[in-house]
Amino acid sequence: MEAEGLDWLLVPLHQLVSWGAAGAMVFGGVVPYIPQYRDIRRTQNAEGFSAYVCLVLLVANILRILFWFGRRFESPLLWQSVVMILTMLLMLKLCTEVRVAGELGVKRRFFAAADNKDEEIRAPPRRSYLDFDPHYFWHWSSFADYVQCVLAFTGIAGYITYLSIDSALFVETLGFLAVLTEAMLGVPQLYRNHRHQSTEGMSIKMVLMWTSGDTFKTVYFLLNGAPLQFSVCGLLQVLVDLAILAQAYVFARHPPKPAPHAVHPASTKAL
Question: How is residue 119 annotated by DSSP?
Answer without folding.
Answer: S
